[in-house]
Amino acid sequence: MKIVALTGAGISAESGITTFRDSGGMWEQYDVMEVASIDGWRKNPQLMLRFYNDRRKQLGEVEPNDAHRSLAELEKYFDVTVVTQNVDNLHERAGSSKIIHLHGELTKARSSNDMEMIVDVGYDPIEWGEKAPDGSQLRPHIVWFGEAVPMIETAARTVATADILLIIGTSLNVYPAAGLVGYATGKASIYLIDPNEVSYPGRKITIIREKATSGMEKLKQTLIESFNH
Fold this sequence. Notes:
229 residues, alpha/beta, SIR2/SIRT2 'Small Domain', six-stranded parallel β-sheet, three-stranded antiparallel β-sheet, 10 helices, 9 strands
């Protein structure tokens, strides 16, 4: 039985990761185009390096939460792939083994010229003047506005193989997750965990109106019980 989980900022918020969209989130402190677009990088790369260095430092200070762990535990019973919009490594640290990062990874850097030239930086800062192996400035391994999402086709093919599709911590108004739901087959069971009112016309979706940790605990038990029967 194949489970594919689409995850977004809401699954990491309970670990203390600051989100962009929530009230008090980073959208209010920064102009998104200054810190999350390729134009922002061209205009002020030092600002963007500082911004992502702060995000990386924060990531090193938080832990996976029970929602991440519940998802990882499902691997004991099912073939599970996580497709995440998040750039943190909390799924990995919770024990999930198959993860597709749509928007890149905070603990990695890459060449400014070659998106395939990726290096691990862990939680260390990337300094201005720090070079990739090809001599270009190292930049965060993050997919910014104005850049292609290289893993989107892989993610779409993966969603199409799901017997069960889970949507956790991402509203169905946010792309690319909303678009990926459309790749699920008509036979796939779809579950959505979100504390807010969410609708997705045209598909039968079981909605669990709870935050990620409590919702995932309930859903995990439901799925394990169905597996054992």
